[in-house]
Amino acid sequence: MTGKNNANFNKEYVELVSKLTPKTNEPKTLFHAFWVGGFICMIGQFIKIVLSSAFGLYGDNLAGATSMVLIFLSALLTGLGVYDRIGKYAGGGSIVPITGFANSVVSPAMEFKSEGFVYGLSAKMFTVAGPIIVFGVIGSVATGLIYYVLGLLGVIA
Amino acid sequence: MIDILMQFVKAFVVGGAICTLAQFIINKTKLTSGKILVFFMLGGLVLQALGVYKYLVDFAGAGATVPISGFGYLLAEGAIKGAKAGIFGAITGGLSSASAGVTAAVTFGYLSALIFNTKSKYN
Amino acid sequence: MTDKGTLFFKNKPVIKSAFTIVGPKESQSELGKFFDICLKDDRYGESSYEKAECKMLTMSMKRLIERQKLKDSDVDAIISGDLLNQIISASFSARDFETPFLGVYNACASICEALTLGATLIDGNYAKNTVCSAVSHFATAERQYRYPLELGAIRPAQAQWTVTGAGSYLVSEHLSGYPVISSATIGRVIDFGITDVNNMGAAMAPAACSTITRHLRATNTTTSDYDLIVTGDLGALGSRLLKELAKKQGLDLEPNHVDCGELIYNIDEDEFQGGSGAGCSSVVFASYLYPMLKSKKIKKLLLVATGALLSTLSSQQGESIPGVAHAITVECSND
Asked: Which residue range forms the structural domain that includes residue B22?
């Protein structure tokens, strides 16, 4: 009984709806996403340069530390009620950077604080971002095992 | 100087392009932000598992590591490195190398939610 | 009863009074000056938005009863609804009253459901006074149906904005000079297969069309018999769809149709479609249209509150969105 299989499904009406529904202004949204997304990455590059010259970080540690600073900034902006404004303007430009990941962790945590610190804030923290960790871990384990087996078989060094 | 400037330009263009691709997909498919993040993370992970994403990282620096696909890259990269050390490394390598991001998200997320309250929205 | 689902109230129950409380965004709209209480803070001094929503409803009913110099015990029943799971705002407000309580849920059509039930109780001489009310709050609806407020998600052009507001009505035995609820049509649940949860107007328009057609047929009236045909919260897009659907039924709604969702905010159709929520039709009718009926600026009006009967679970399971609409005719009394 769902969607198109619904006995009441009215093709004519659904087509009318999609005709009359206002279309997203595509070039505008793409431009917004481009410059905001690019700008966030540029900030990341700046942080990277500062961290490497100030603390002598390099390689994986440098990348990790850069992410941490960006996540901190995003958590702060989300807390101050600014990041969702940026999101409305930039769309993909502020969703895809690691700051968007942080925003999706912080925003439900703030929202559900009213239901307590255990079942509210902490439990709801990963309602949006949880799947990223889940798929990330599963994907990395799969990758690791494939490489391990290929290594055993001598396919790769 | 030119070198540093070029780093910024590359980060801007590549990072911007990845975000534009995301926006393009959002416009076409109406995917919500949670799913977009999952797909781009998996995209980075798979590309690195195939050994490709690191070239983008070498070229664009933060332009490739700051988007969530960079998080997927780190996971795959860690797992591949771990696999060289044995089966235990193959399983744990991914999350260890991505630990900075997860730790920061949980810690700063918790602190931020402790300190701040949701603001009223009027538009 | 000629047509199933249309009720004629022979004893002419009246809407004796109405009271509204709205949030800051609604107070800044063009209708802002009509509302009884405009809050500066949409938390209403409470620790959560849910508590604020409940307090808005409680206060609107308390002030309504006080204004008529009545006591809780003079009211035979409170009939009210809201959008939250287990309609907690309505039930929790009712614990502050020494009055029997009926909770109703028909999403944003709840206010017409409440008014229909209230009028039925009065008409059948089961009650002398009933309080009918509905409330919604942007922040609570947003978190129940959509995303956390601080999440940087994109709001699509077809989206609507849940009204923060509570509207309460005192429906009483006939008294000359007050607007009369003369008939009501109970809506059928209509589902044309819309699955886009951001496009509520499109999901509800077929239900509105069905109810309007049935009501006109049952009461043997045409659109021109009404000064206004008022839909609840179809928004700009939903209103256009309703007119298209009505045209196919041979009805011209163009001249006298208004939508509460379109009235309450200044809207730009390319960006967003207007207000929605149980409070939307409730506050617009109570503060803006009801006084016009009372002062006889308009003589006869059809109020069609529309509701989208979805839940987050149903939409995640891929279900389409059923809509419902209930209609009531409110007219100036002749005597």
From this structure: 2-115
